[in-house]
Predict the structure.
Amino acid sequence: MNRFIGFLKKEFYHIFRDKRSMLILFGMPIVQIMLFGYVINTDLKDVKMAVLDHSKDEYTAEIINKITSSGYFQLSNNLKSIEQADVIFRKGDVKLILVFEPDFGKKLVKNSKANVQILTDASDPNTANLEVSYLQGILQNYNVEINQDKQLPSSIQANSRMYFNANLESVFMFIPGIMATILMLVSAMMTSISIAREKELGTMEILLVSPLNPLQIILGKVTPYLALSFINALVIVGMGYFVFGVPVLGSFTLLMAESVLFIFLALSIGIFISTVAKSQQVAMMLSMFVLMLPTIILSGFIFPIRNMPVPLQVISYIIPPKYFIVILKNIMLKGVGLEYVWKETLILLAMTFGFIGLSLKKFKIRLQ
Amino acid sequence: MNKDVKVIKVKNLCKKFGDFTANNNLSFEVSKGEIFGFLGANGAGKTTAIKILCGLSYPTSGEISVAGFDVYKQREQLKRNIGYMSQKFSLYEDLTVFENIRFYGGIYGLSKEVIHRKADDLLKKLDLQHARNKRISSLPLGWKQKLAFSVAIFHDPEIVFLDEPTGGVDPVTRRQFWDLIYEASREGITIFVTTHYMDEAEYCDRVSIMVDGKIEALDTPAKLKEDFNAVDMDQVFLALARTATNVE
Protein backbone atom coordinates (compact mmCIF):
# COMPACT_ATOMS: atom_id res chain seq x y z
CA MET A 1 0.00 0.00 0.00
CA ASN A 2 2.87 2.35 0.85
CA ARG A 3 4.31 1.67 -2.55
CA PHE A 4 1.04 2.63 -4.15
CA ILE A 5 0.80 5.88 -2.19
CA GLY A 6 4.32 6.78 -3.25
CA PHE A 7 3.27 6.18 -6.80
CA LEU A 8 0.19 8.39 -6.44
CA LYS A 9 2.27 11.16 -4.91
CA LYS A 10 4.57 11.13 -7.89
CA GLU A 11 1.63 11.28 -10.30
CA PHE A 12 0.25 14.35 -8.55
CA TYR A 13 3.66 16.01 -8.73
CA HIS A 14 3.70 15.39 -12.48
CA ILE A 15 0.29 16.99 -12.86
CA PHE A 16 0.78 19.95 -10.55
CA ARG A 17 4.18 20.80 -12.02
CA ASP A 18 3.02 20.76 -15.60
CA LYS A 19 1.48 24.07 -16.56
CA ARG A 20 -0.19 22.56 -19.60
CA SER A 21 -1.90 19.88 -17.55
CA MET A 22 -3.07 22.39 -14.99
CA LEU A 23 -4.48 24.61 -17.69
CA ILE A 24 -6.42 21.77 -19.28
CA LEU A 25 -7.57 20.50 -15.92
CA PHE A 26 -8.75 23.66 -14.31
CA GLY A 27 -8.70 26.47 -16.84
CA MET A 28 -10.65 24.81 -19.58
CA PRO A 29 -13.82 23.81 -17.75
CA ILE A 30 -14.29 27.31 -16.43
CA VAL A 31 -13.53 28.99 -19.75
CA GLN A 32 -15.86 26.64 -21.60
CA ILE A 33 -18.73 27.14 -19.23
CA MET A 34 -18.31 30.89 -19.36
CA LEU A 35 -18.07 30.92 -23.15
CA PHE A 36 -21.05 28.70 -23.77
CA GLY A 37 -23.07 30.22 -20.98
CA TYR A 38 -22.61 33.78 -22.08
CA VAL A 39 -22.80 33.16 -25.80
CA ILE A 40 -26.18 31.63 -25.25
CA ASN A 41 -27.37 34.29 -22.82
CA THR A 42 -27.38 37.17 -25.27
CA ASP A 43 -29.63 40.06 -24.42
CA LEU A 44 -32.99 40.43 -26.01
CA LYS A 45 -33.86 43.45 -28.09
CA ASP A 46 -36.99 44.29 -30.06
CA VAL A 47 -38.29 40.74 -30.28
CA LYS A 48 -41.34 40.79 -32.55
CA MET A 49 -44.45 39.86 -30.65
CA ALA A 50 -48.09 39.28 -31.57
CA VAL A 51 -51.05 39.61 -29.24
CA LEU A 52 -54.28 37.66 -29.17
CA ASP A 53 -56.43 39.62 -26.77
CA HIS A 54 -59.73 37.92 -25.99
CA SER A 55 -60.51 40.49 -23.34
CA LYS A 56 -59.46 43.91 -24.66
CA ASP A 57 -59.83 45.78 -21.38
CA GLU A 58 -57.76 48.42 -19.60
CA TYR A 59 -55.63 45.85 -17.84
CA THR A 60 -54.58 44.04 -20.99
CA ALA A 61 -53.93 47.34 -22.71
CA GLU A 62 -51.76 48.41 -19.83
CA ILE A 63 -49.83 45.14 -19.78
CA ILE A 64 -49.21 45.31 -23.53
CA ASN A 65 -48.06 48.86 -23.10
CA LYS A 66 -45.65 47.86 -20.34
CA ILE A 67 -44.23 45.07 -22.41
CA THR A 68 -43.69 47.08 -25.56
CA SER A 69 -42.20 49.98 -23.67
CA SER A 70 -39.62 47.71 -22.04
CA GLY A 71 -37.48 47.78 -25.16
CA TYR A 72 -37.22 44.01 -25.29
CA PHE A 73 -40.38 43.40 -27.26
CA GLN A 74 -42.09 45.05 -30.20
CA LEU A 75 -45.75 44.61 -31.06
CA SER A 76 -46.15 43.61 -34.67
CA ASN A 77 -49.58 41.94 -35.03
CA ASN A 78 -52.91 41.69 -33.35
CA LEU A 79 -54.37 38.27 -33.92
CA LYS A 80 -58.03 37.37 -34.10
CA SER A 81 -57.92 33.65 -33.37
CA ILE A 82 -55.53 31.04 -32.06
CA GLU A 83 -55.51 29.32 -35.45
CA GLN A 84 -53.37 32.15 -36.73
CA ALA A 85 -50.58 31.24 -34.34
CA ASP A 86 -49.16 28.41 -36.39
CA VAL A 87 -49.22 30.43 -39.58
CA ILE A 88 -47.56 33.43 -38.07
CA PHE A 89 -44.81 31.37 -36.37
CA ARG A 90 -44.08 29.59 -39.61
CA LYS A 91 -43.55 32.89 -41.34
CA GLY A 92 -40.73 33.34 -38.88
CA ASP A 93 -40.84 37.03 -38.01
CA VAL A 94 -42.86 36.77 -34.87
CA LYS A 95 -41.20 34.81 -32.11
CA LEU A 96 -43.76 35.21 -29.41
CA ILE A 97 -47.53 35.40 -28.99
CA LEU A 98 -49.25 36.66 -25.90
CA VAL A 99 -52.79 35.34 -25.30
CA PHE A 100 -55.10 36.95 -22.78
CA GLU A 101 -58.08 34.89 -21.67
CA PRO A 102 -61.59 36.35 -22.08
CA ASP A 103 -62.56 38.77 -19.31
CA PHE A 104 -58.99 39.01 -18.14
CA GLY A 105 -59.49 42.30 -16.34
CA LYS A 106 -62.71 41.29 -14.68
CA LYS A 107 -61.26 38.05 -13.42
CA LEU A 108 -58.25 39.84 -12.10
CA VAL A 109 -60.42 42.19 -10.07
CA LYS A 110 -63.09 39.73 -9.01
CA ASN A 111 -61.20 36.47 -8.57
CA SER A 112 -57.82 38.07 -7.98
CA LYS A 113 -56.54 35.69 -10.57
CA ALA A 114 -56.30 35.85 -14.34
CA ASN A 115 -54.49 33.83 -16.95
CA VAL A 116 -52.22 34.83 -19.73
CA GLN A 117 -50.53 32.39 -22.04
CA ILE A 118 -47.16 32.88 -23.64
CA LEU A 119 -46.56 30.99 -26.88
CA THR A 120 -43.03 30.92 -28.17
CA ASP A 121 -41.26 29.70 -31.24
CA ALA A 122 -38.84 27.30 -29.62
CA SER A 123 -36.91 26.27 -32.68
CA ASP A 124 -34.26 28.41 -31.06
CA PRO A 125 -34.90 27.08 -27.60
CA ASN A 126 -32.38 29.15 -25.71
CA THR A 127 -33.82 32.41 -26.90
CA ALA A 128 -37.35 31.15 -26.41
CA ASN A 129 -36.60 30.32 -22.84
CA LEU A 130 -35.07 33.69 -22.27
CA GLU A 131 -38.06 35.48 -23.79
CA VAL A 132 -40.40 33.68 -21.47
CA SER A 133 -38.44 34.61 -18.40
CA TYR A 134 -38.22 38.26 -19.47
CA LEU A 135 -41.96 38.38 -20.07
CA GLN A 136 -42.69 36.74 -16.78
CA GLY A 137 -40.51 39.30 -15.12
CA ILE A 138 -42.50 42.15 -16.65
CA LEU A 139 -45.80 40.54 -15.71
CA GLN A 140 -44.55 40.03 -12.20
CA ASN A 141 -43.61 43.70 -11.87
CA TYR A 142 -46.99 44.77 -13.14
CA ASN A 143 -48.63 42.45 -10.66
CA VAL A 144 -46.72 44.01 -7.80
CA GLU A 145 -47.69 47.50 -9.00
CA ILE A 146 -51.42 46.84 -9.07
CA ASN A 147 -51.27 45.10 -5.74
CA GLN A 148 -49.84 48.06 -3.92
CA ASP A 149 -53.14 49.62 -2.94
CA LYS A 150 -55.18 46.47 -2.59
CA GLN A 151 -55.91 44.37 0.42
CA LEU A 152 -56.47 41.14 -1.37
CA PRO A 153 -53.46 40.52 -3.61
CA SER A 154 -54.22 39.40 -7.12
CA SER A 155 -52.05 37.31 -9.33
CA ILE A 156 -51.46 36.98 -13.03
CA GLN A 157 -50.85 33.40 -14.01
CA ALA A 158 -48.54 33.15 -16.98
CA ASN A 159 -48.36 29.77 -18.67
CA SER A 160 -45.86 29.29 -21.38
CA ARG A 161 -46.02 26.87 -24.24
CA MET A 162 -43.27 26.11 -26.68
CA TYR A 163 -44.01 25.63 -30.32
CA PHE A 164 -41.94 23.25 -32.50
CA ASN A 165 -39.86 21.97 -29.64
CA ALA A 166 -42.20 21.23 -26.82
CA ASN A 167 -39.61 19.48 -24.64
CA LEU A 168 -37.12 22.30 -25.03
CA GLU A 169 -34.49 19.80 -25.98
CA SER A 170 -31.42 21.89 -26.10
CA VAL A 171 -32.03 24.44 -23.40
CA PHE A 172 -29.34 24.03 -20.77
CA MET A 173 -27.82 21.40 -22.98
CA PHE A 174 -24.51 23.09 -22.72
CA ILE A 175 -23.93 21.99 -19.16
CA PRO A 176 -24.36 18.25 -19.83
CA GLY A 177 -22.42 18.74 -23.06
CA ILE A 178 -19.50 20.49 -21.41
CA MET A 179 -19.52 17.95 -18.63
CA ALA A 180 -19.21 15.10 -21.15
CA THR A 181 -16.52 16.93 -23.12
CA ILE A 182 -14.40 17.90 -20.13
CA LEU A 183 -14.61 14.55 -18.40
CA MET A 184 -13.74 12.81 -21.63
CA LEU A 185 -10.84 15.15 -22.22
CA VAL A 186 -9.41 15.09 -18.74
CA SER A 187 -9.86 11.40 -18.15
CA ALA A 188 -9.10 9.87 -21.50
CA MET A 189 -6.68 12.29 -23.06
CA MET A 190 -4.70 13.14 -19.95
CA THR A 191 -4.28 9.51 -18.85
CA SER A 192 -3.33 8.32 -22.30
CA ILE A 193 -0.78 11.11 -22.56
CA SER A 194 0.61 10.47 -19.12
CA ILE A 195 1.05 6.75 -19.81
CA ALA A 196 2.54 7.47 -23.22
CA ARG A 197 4.97 9.88 -21.59
CA GLU A 198 6.30 7.12 -19.36
CA LYS A 199 6.80 4.96 -22.43
CA GLU A 200 8.51 7.74 -24.32
CA LEU A 201 10.87 8.53 -21.45
CA GLY A 202 11.66 4.88 -20.88
CA THR A 203 10.46 5.03 -17.29
CA MET A 204 7.66 2.60 -18.14
CA GLU A 205 10.26 -0.15 -18.58
CA ILE A 206 11.64 0.64 -15.15
CA LEU A 207 8.17 0.45 -13.66
CA LEU A 208 7.47 -2.86 -15.38
CA VAL A 209 10.76 -4.32 -14.16
CA SER A 210 9.97 -3.18 -10.62
CA PRO A 211 7.92 -5.34 -8.24
CA LEU A 212 4.86 -3.19 -8.91
CA ASN A 213 2.43 -5.26 -10.90
CA PRO A 214 0.86 -3.84 -14.05
CA LEU A 215 -2.50 -3.41 -12.35
CA GLN A 216 -0.92 -1.22 -9.66
CA ILE A 217 0.83 0.83 -12.31
CA ILE A 218 -2.40 1.40 -14.21
CA LEU A 219 -4.35 2.18 -11.05
CA GLY A 220 -1.64 4.58 -9.94
CA LYS A 221 -1.83 6.30 -13.29
CA VAL A 222 -5.60 6.69 -13.39
CA THR A 223 -6.48 7.40 -9.76
CA PRO A 224 -5.32 11.05 -9.81
CA TYR A 225 -7.35 11.70 -12.91
CA LEU A 226 -10.36 9.99 -11.38
CA ALA A 227 -10.12 12.36 -8.42
CA LEU A 228 -9.49 15.46 -10.52
CA SER A 229 -12.25 14.60 -12.98
CA PHE A 230 -14.66 14.18 -10.12
CA ILE A 231 -13.75 17.62 -8.82
CA ASN A 232 -14.28 18.94 -12.33
CA ALA A 233 -17.74 17.39 -12.47
CA LEU A 234 -18.63 19.14 -9.21
CA VAL A 235 -17.26 22.45 -10.48
CA ILE A 236 -19.23 22.22 -13.71
CA VAL A 237 -22.53 21.35 -12.04
CA GLY A 238 -21.87 23.99 -9.41
CA MET A 239 -21.10 26.72 -11.92
CA GLY A 240 -24.09 25.71 -14.01
CA TYR A 241 -26.29 26.03 -10.97
CA PHE A 242 -24.92 29.17 -9.36
CA VAL A 243 -23.89 31.16 -12.42
CA PHE A 244 -26.45 30.12 -15.00
CA GLY A 245 -29.29 28.70 -12.98
CA VAL A 246 -29.18 25.28 -14.57
CA PRO A 247 -31.13 23.14 -12.14
CA VAL A 248 -30.46 19.68 -10.80
CA LEU A 249 -34.02 18.43 -10.50
CA GLY A 250 -33.18 14.79 -9.94
CA SER A 251 -31.03 13.05 -7.38
CA PHE A 252 -27.63 14.65 -6.94
CA THR A 253 -26.16 11.36 -5.74
CA LEU A 254 -27.35 9.57 -8.85
CA LEU A 255 -25.95 12.36 -10.99
CA MET A 256 -22.53 12.01 -9.39
CA ALA A 257 -22.64 8.22 -9.53
CA GLU A 258 -23.35 8.37 -13.25
CA SER A 259 -20.51 10.86 -13.64
CA VAL A 260 -18.13 8.49 -11.90
CA LEU A 261 -19.26 5.71 -14.21
CA PHE A 262 -18.59 7.92 -17.21
CA ILE A 263 -15.19 8.89 -15.81
CA PHE A 264 -14.35 5.19 -15.48
CA LEU A 265 -15.38 4.68 -19.08
CA ALA A 266 -13.26 7.60 -20.25
CA LEU A 267 -10.30 6.32 -18.22
CA SER A 268 -10.60 2.89 -19.75
CA ILE A 269 -10.66 4.48 -23.20
CA GLY A 270 -7.56 6.45 -22.22
CA ILE A 271 -5.80 3.27 -21.15
CA PHE A 272 -6.80 1.62 -24.38
CA ILE A 273 -5.41 4.52 -26.41
CA SER A 274 -2.16 4.34 -24.48
CA THR A 275 -1.75 0.65 -25.30
CA VAL A 276 -1.87 1.65 -28.95
CA ALA A 277 0.06 4.93 -28.85
CA LYS A 278 3.82 4.87 -28.41
CA SER A 279 4.35 8.59 -27.98
CA GLN A 280 2.60 11.52 -26.37
CA GLN A 281 1.96 13.05 -29.77
CA VAL A 282 0.17 9.98 -31.06
CA ALA A 283 -1.84 9.73 -27.86
CA MET A 284 -2.83 13.36 -28.20
CA MET A 285 -3.81 13.03 -31.86
CA LEU A 286 -5.82 9.88 -31.22
CA SER A 287 -7.63 11.50 -28.32
CA MET A 288 -8.37 14.57 -30.36
CA PHE A 289 -9.75 12.86 -33.42
CA VAL A 290 -11.24 9.74 -31.96
CA LEU A 291 -12.64 11.34 -28.82
CA MET A 292 -12.88 15.09 -28.83
CA LEU A 293 -14.41 15.82 -32.20
CA PRO A 294 -17.05 13.08 -32.02
CA THR A 295 -17.84 14.11 -28.45
CA ILE A 296 -18.48 17.66 -29.52
CA ILE A 297 -20.07 17.07 -32.89
CA LEU A 298 -21.83 13.71 -32.82
CA SER A 299 -22.99 13.38 -29.24
CA GLY A 300 -25.95 15.71 -29.63
CA PHE A 301 -24.18 18.32 -27.51
CA ILE A 302 -24.31 21.05 -30.12
CA PHE A 303 -26.09 19.58 -33.12
CA PRO A 304 -29.31 17.61 -32.69
CA ILE A 305 -28.74 13.97 -33.66
CA ARG A 306 -32.21 13.86 -35.24
CA ASN A 307 -31.15 16.30 -37.93
CA MET A 308 -28.02 14.42 -38.95
CA PRO A 309 -27.77 12.29 -42.08
CA VAL A 310 -28.54 8.64 -41.35
CA PRO A 311 -24.94 7.32 -41.52
CA LEU A 312 -23.87 9.85 -38.91
CA GLN A 313 -26.86 8.98 -36.77
CA VAL A 314 -25.71 5.37 -36.85
CA ILE A 315 -22.20 6.39 -35.82
CA SER A 316 -23.60 8.45 -32.97
CA TYR A 317 -24.79 5.21 -31.37
CA ILE A 318 -21.23 4.19 -30.62
CA ILE A 319 -20.26 7.55 -29.16
CA PRO A 320 -20.22 7.10 -25.37
CA PRO A 321 -20.90 10.74 -24.46
CA LYS A 322 -24.19 10.55 -26.33
CA TYR A 323 -25.55 8.25 -23.63
CA PHE A 324 -23.99 10.24 -20.84
CA ILE A 325 -25.61 13.42 -22.13
CA VAL A 326 -28.99 11.71 -22.27
CA ILE A 327 -28.51 10.55 -18.68
CA LEU A 328 -27.43 13.99 -17.46
CA LYS A 329 -30.25 15.72 -19.25
CA ASN A 330 -32.79 13.36 -17.78
CA ILE A 331 -31.50 13.64 -14.24
CA MET A 332 -30.72 17.34 -14.24
CA LEU A 333 -33.51 18.78 -16.32
CA LYS A 334 -36.33 16.28 -16.09
CA GLY A 335 -35.62 15.12 -12.58
CA VAL A 336 -36.13 11.43 -13.31
CA GLY A 337 -34.47 8.54 -11.50
CA LEU A 338 -32.52 5.48 -12.49
CA GLU A 339 -35.67 3.77 -13.80
CA TYR A 340 -35.57 6.09 -16.79
CA VAL A 341 -31.87 5.96 -17.53
CA TRP A 342 -30.95 2.35 -16.73
CA LYS A 343 -30.60 1.47 -20.40
CA GLU A 344 -28.03 4.17 -21.04
CA THR A 345 -26.28 3.29 -17.77
CA LEU A 346 -26.01 -0.33 -18.86
CA ILE A 347 -24.59 0.71 -22.21
CA LEU A 348 -21.93 2.81 -20.50
CA LEU A 349 -21.10 -0.08 -18.15
CA ALA A 350 -20.79 -2.48 -21.06
CA MET A 351 -18.54 -0.06 -22.92
CA THR A 352 -16.32 0.33 -19.85
CA PHE A 353 -15.84 -3.41 -19.49
CA GLY A 354 -15.33 -3.68 -23.23
CA PHE A 355 -12.44 -1.21 -23.23
CA ILE A 356 -10.83 -2.68 -20.11
CA GLY A 357 -11.03 -6.11 -21.73
CA LEU A 358 -9.49 -4.85 -24.96
CA SER A 359 -6.65 -3.14 -23.09
CA LEU A 360 -5.89 -6.25 -21.05
CA LYS A 361 -5.77 -8.31 -24.20
CA LYS A 362 -3.41 -5.87 -25.89
CA PHE A 363 -1.27 -5.73 -22.79
CA LYS A 364 -0.96 -9.50 -22.58
CA ILE A 365 0.01 -9.78 -26.22
CA ARG A 366 2.76 -7.28 -25.65
CA LEU A 367 4.15 -9.19 -22.71
CA GLN A 368 4.33 -12.47 -24.61
CA MET B 1 33.77 -11.94 -7.88
CA ASN B 2 32.67 -15.18 -6.29
CA LYS B 3 32.86 -17.95 -8.87
CA ASP B 4 31.18 -20.51 -6.66
CA VAL B 5 27.92 -18.60 -6.49
CA LYS B 6 26.01 -18.44 -9.75
CA VAL B 7 23.35 -15.75 -9.71
CA ILE B 8 22.14 -16.25 -13.25
CA LYS B 9 21.65 -19.74 -14.59
CA VAL B 10 20.37 -20.14 -18.13
CA LYS B 11 19.96 -23.56 -19.67
CA ASN B 12 18.66 -24.10 -23.20
CA LEU B 13 16.69 -20.85 -23.33
CA CYS B 14 14.52 -20.66 -26.44
CA LYS B 15 12.15 -17.89 -27.40
CA LYS B 16 10.06 -18.02 -30.54
CA PHE B 17 7.70 -15.47 -32.05
CA GLY B 18 5.72 -17.51 -34.54
CA ASP B 19 8.27 -18.91 -37.01
CA PHE B 20 10.98 -16.53 -35.91
CA THR B 21 13.45 -17.75 -33.33
CA ALA B 22 14.75 -14.81 -31.35
CA ASN B 23 16.75 -16.84 -28.83
CA ASN B 24 18.07 -20.16 -30.01
CA ASN B 25 19.14 -22.49 -27.22
CA LEU B 26 21.09 -20.08 -25.04
CA SER B 27 23.03 -21.51 -22.10
CA PHE B 28 25.28 -19.55 -19.77
CA GLU B 29 25.93 -18.79 -16.12
CA VAL B 30 26.95 -15.57 -14.42
CA SER B 31 28.83 -15.47 -11.10
CA LYS B 32 28.12 -13.20 -8.17
CA GLY B 33 29.84 -9.85 -8.58
CA GLU B 34 30.81 -10.54 -12.16
CA ILE B 35 30.64 -7.87 -14.84
CA PHE B 36 29.06 -9.75 -17.69
CA GLY B 37 29.04 -8.10 -21.12
CA PHE B 38 26.12 -9.11 -23.32
CA LEU B 39 26.99 -8.10 -26.85
CA GLY B 40 25.42 -8.49 -30.24
CA ALA B 41 24.32 -6.45 -33.24
CA ASN B 42 20.82 -4.95 -33.35
CA GLY B 43 18.35 -7.75 -33.99
CA ALA B 44 20.61 -10.45 -32.59
CA GLY B 45 18.16 -11.14 -29.77
CA LYS B 46 19.75 -9.34 -26.81
CA THR B 47 16.67 -7.38 -25.79
CA THR B 48 14.48 -10.47 -25.94
CA ALA B 49 16.84 -12.32 -23.63
CA ILE B 50 17.09 -9.43 -21.17
CA LYS B 51 13.30 -9.14 -21.01
CA ILE B 52 13.10 -12.80 -20.08
CA LEU B 53 15.80 -12.50 -17.44
CA CYS B 54 14.01 -9.48 -15.91
CA GLY B 55 10.72 -11.32 -15.71
CA LEU B 56 9.00 -9.19 -18.33
CA SER B 57 8.28 -12.00 -20.74
CA TYR B 58 8.11 -15.76 -20.63
CA PRO B 59 10.55 -17.97 -22.52
CA THR B 60 9.19 -20.57 -24.92
CA SER B 61 11.33 -23.22 -23.25
CA GLY B 62 14.42 -23.62 -21.09
CA GLU B 63 15.38 -23.53 -17.43
CA ILE B 64 16.23 -20.07 -16.20
CA SER B 65 16.84 -18.81 -12.71
CA VAL B 66 17.85 -15.28 -11.77
CA ALA B 67 19.05 -14.40 -8.26
CA GLY B 68 17.92 -17.88 -7.30
CA PHE B 69 14.35 -17.37 -8.51
CA ASP B 70 12.60 -19.15 -11.31
CA VAL B 71 11.50 -16.90 -14.19
CA TYR B 72 8.28 -18.83 -14.64
CA LYS B 73 7.00 -19.06 -11.09
CA GLN B 74 8.80 -16.55 -8.89
CA ARG B 75 8.59 -13.34 -10.83
CA GLU B 76 7.62 -11.17 -7.88
CA GLN B 77 10.67 -12.18 -5.81
CA LEU B 78 12.86 -12.05 -8.88
CA LYS B 79 11.81 -8.48 -9.61
CA ARG B 80 12.52 -7.42 -6.03
CA ASN B 81 16.09 -8.62 -6.35
CA ILE B 82 17.13 -7.05 -9.60
CA GLY B 83 17.75 -3.51 -10.75
CA TYR B 84 17.38 -2.15 -14.26
CA MET B 85 18.61 0.84 -16.17
CA SER B 86 18.05 1.41 -19.85
CA GLN B 87 19.61 3.51 -22.55
CA LYS B 88 16.57 5.73 -22.44
CA PHE B 89 16.82 8.10 -19.57
CA SER B 90 15.06 6.74 -16.53
CA LEU B 91 14.63 9.47 -13.96
CA TYR B 92 11.67 11.82 -13.90
CA GLU B 93 12.78 15.23 -15.11
CA ASP B 94 10.01 17.09 -13.33
CA LEU B 95 10.80 15.58 -9.95
CA THR B 96 13.67 16.62 -7.71
CA VAL B 97 16.69 14.42 -7.05
CA PHE B 98 15.34 13.37 -3.68
CA GLU B 99 11.80 12.81 -4.96
CA ASN B 100 13.15 10.45 -7.60
CA ILE B 101 15.14 8.52 -5.02
CA ARG B 102 12.14 8.38 -2.70
CA PHE B 103 9.86 7.20 -5.50
CA TYR B 104 12.13 4.39 -6.68
CA GLY B 105 12.97 3.37 -3.15
CA GLY B 106 9.25 3.38 -2.43
CA ILE B 107 8.22 1.10 -5.28
CA TYR B 108 10.80 -1.44 -4.06
CA GLY B 109 9.15 -1.33 -0.67
CA LEU B 110 11.92 0.37 1.31
CA SER B 111 10.79 2.11 4.48
CA LYS B 112 10.86 5.87 4.89
CA GLU B 113 13.76 5.76 7.37
CA VAL B 114 15.86 3.52 5.16
CA ILE B 115 15.20 5.74 2.16
CA HIS B 116 16.25 8.88 4.04
CA ARG B 117 19.40 7.31 5.46
CA LYS B 118 20.49 5.74 2.19
CA ALA B 119 19.63 8.85 0.20
CA ASP B 120 21.91 10.93 2.44
CA ASP B 121 24.77 8.45 2.02
CA LEU B 122 24.25 8.32 -1.72
CA LEU B 123 24.18 12.08 -2.21
CA LYS B 124 27.30 12.42 -0.10
CA LYS B 125 29.06 9.77 -2.15
CA LEU B 126 28.11 11.37 -5.46
CA ASP B 127 28.86 14.82 -4.06
CA LEU B 128 25.35 15.90 -4.96
CA GLN B 129 24.13 17.15 -1.58
CA HIS B 130 23.60 20.64 -2.91
CA ALA B 131 21.32 19.31 -5.65
CA ARG B 132 19.06 17.32 -3.35
CA ASN B 133 16.04 19.52 -3.98
CA LYS B 134 16.83 20.45 -7.55
CA ARG B 135 14.82 19.05 -10.39
CA ILE B 136 16.52 16.44 -12.53
CA SER B 137 15.97 18.60 -15.62
CA SER B 138 18.45 21.14 -14.24
CA LEU B 139 21.34 18.64 -13.88
CA PRO B 140 24.03 17.95 -16.49
CA LEU B 141 23.74 14.65 -18.35
CA GLY B 142 26.72 13.03 -16.69
CA TRP B 143 25.26 13.54 -13.22
CA LYS B 144 21.88 12.28 -14.32
CA GLN B 145 23.52 9.14 -15.63
CA LYS B 146 25.37 8.46 -12.40
CA LEU B 147 22.29 9.18 -10.39
CA ALA B 148 20.20 6.88 -12.57
CA PHE B 149 22.65 4.06 -11.97
CA SER B 150 22.73 4.70 -8.25
CA VAL B 151 18.94 4.69 -8.16
CA ALA B 152 18.88 1.40 -10.09
CA ILE B 153 20.94 -0.23 -7.31
CA PHE B 154 19.40 1.76 -4.46
CA HIS B 155 17.47 -1.28 -3.17
CA ASP B 156 20.64 -3.42 -3.08
CA PRO B 157 19.69 -5.86 -5.82
CA GLU B 158 21.63 -9.05 -6.49
CA ILE B 159 21.94 -8.17 -10.14
CA VAL B 160 21.62 -4.99 -12.12
CA PHE B 161 20.75 -5.10 -15.80
CA LEU B 162 22.19 -2.22 -17.80
CA ASP B 163 20.78 -1.92 -21.30
CA GLU B 164 23.20 0.29 -23.24
CA PRO B 165 23.59 2.57 -20.25
CA THR B 166 26.18 4.87 -21.79
CA GLY B 167 24.48 5.66 -25.09
CA GLY B 168 25.08 9.27 -26.09
CA VAL B 169 27.50 10.09 -23.29
CA ASP B 170 30.96 11.60 -23.73
CA PRO B 171 34.06 9.42 -23.12
CA VAL B 172 35.02 11.09 -19.83
CA THR B 173 31.58 10.56 -18.36
CA ARG B 174 31.57 7.01 -19.66
CA ARG B 175 34.82 6.34 -17.85
CA GLN B 176 33.39 7.78 -14.62
CA PHE B 177 30.30 5.71 -15.09
CA TRP B 178 32.40 2.57 -15.31
CA ASP B 179 34.07 3.49 -12.04
CA LEU B 180 30.64 3.26 -10.45
CA ILE B 181 30.07 -0.11 -12.10
CA TYR B 182 33.36 -1.44 -10.71
CA GLU B 183 32.49 -0.20 -7.28
CA ALA B 184 29.10 -1.91 -7.38
CA SER B 185 30.77 -5.09 -8.56
CA ARG B 186 33.22 -4.94 -5.64
CA GLU B 187 30.24 -4.67 -3.32
CA GLY B 188 29.01 -7.98 -4.73
CA ILE B 189 26.38 -6.73 -7.17
CA THR B 190 26.41 -8.66 -10.42
CA ILE B 191 26.43 -6.45 -13.50
CA PHE B 192 24.74 -7.62 -16.67
CA VAL B 193 25.50 -5.02 -19.31
CA THR B 194 24.84 -4.57 -23.01
CA THR B 195 26.80 -2.04 -25.00
CA HIS B 196 27.70 -0.93 -28.48
CA TYR B 197 31.05 0.44 -27.43
CA MET B 198 33.73 -2.17 -27.88
CA ASP B 199 36.17 -0.38 -25.59
CA GLU B 200 33.60 -0.94 -22.87
CA ALA B 201 33.52 -4.64 -23.70
CA GLU B 202 37.16 -4.71 -22.63
CA TYR B 203 36.15 -3.57 -19.13
CA CYS B 204 33.98 -6.66 -18.61
CA ASP B 205 35.11 -9.79 -16.78
CA ARG B 206 33.51 -11.95 -19.42
CA VAL B 207 31.76 -11.18 -22.66
CA SER B 208 29.18 -13.11 -24.68
CA ILE B 209 28.52 -12.23 -28.30
CA MET B 210 25.18 -13.08 -29.85
CA VAL B 211 24.66 -13.59 -33.57
CA ASP B 212 21.28 -14.51 -35.05
CA GLY B 213 19.80 -15.57 -31.73
CA LYS B 214 22.71 -17.77 -30.70
CA ILE B 215 25.65 -17.15 -28.42
CA GLU B 216 28.63 -17.54 -30.76
CA ALA B 217 31.38 -16.64 -28.31
CA LEU B 218 31.65 -16.45 -24.53
CA ASP B 219 34.87 -15.83 -22.61
CA THR B 220 37.13 -13.21 -21.11
CA PRO B 221 38.02 -10.40 -23.50
CA ALA B 222 41.68 -11.48 -23.46
CA LYS B 223 40.83 -15.06 -24.36
CA LEU B 224 38.46 -13.98 -27.13
CA LYS B 225 41.06 -11.75 -28.69
CA GLU B 226 43.50 -14.60 -28.62
CA ASP B 227 41.02 -17.06 -30.14
CA PHE B 228 40.07 -14.72 -32.95
CA ASN B 229 43.59 -13.53 -33.40
CA ALA B 230 42.41 -9.96 -32.96
CA VAL B 231 44.01 -6.77 -31.67
CA ASP B 232 40.88 -5.55 -29.91
CA MET B 233 37.28 -6.49 -29.20
CA ASP B 234 36.14 -4.50 -32.19
CA GLN B 235 37.80 -7.00 -34.51
CA VAL B 236 36.35 -9.94 -32.59
CA PHE B 237 32.92 -8.45 -32.86
CA LEU B 238 33.20 -7.68 -36.56
CA ALA B 239 34.50 -11.15 -37.34
CA LEU B 240 31.42 -12.64 -35.70
CA ALA B 241 28.86 -10.08 -36.79
CA ARG B 242 29.78 -10.53 -40.44
CA THR B 243 28.21 -13.97 -40.36
CA ALA B 244 24.83 -12.56 -39.29
CA THR B 245 21.74 -12.80 -41.44
CA ASN B 246 19.16 -11.23 -39.13
CA VAL B 247 20.15 -7.64 -39.37
CA GLU B 248 17.57 -4.97 -38.71
Notes: The longest helix of chain B spans residues 171-186. Chain B has a mean pLDDT of 89.
